[in-house]
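Look over both lines:
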Amino acid sequence: MNQDRKTSLLTPALCRGARAMLDWTQAELADRAGVSRSTIRDFEGGRHELHRATETQLRHAFEEEGVRMMSDEREISISLRNADTADGSE
């Protein structure tokens, strides 16, 4: 039962996109997620896939800054919560 490819939400393009939304470098993401910069570089460059635990660490780092990743049967999307409305006051 090889599910890694099917269940992985974070793709190299989504990782780059989420970093761009936050204006983070690969090093900043690596620091915030507790992984090496070479892990980010190699994943975004398509040189290897992520372990589930590493993907979770990256997604957690993004989510802490307001990035949300959602998927349905046809698409995967990312969004950035507005910092001004994060506390519920609009």
Observations:
- Helices lie at 4-7, 12-22, 26-33, 37-44, 52-64.
- The first strand starts at residue 67 and ends at 71.
- Confidence is low (pLDDT under 50) at residues 1-6, 85-90.
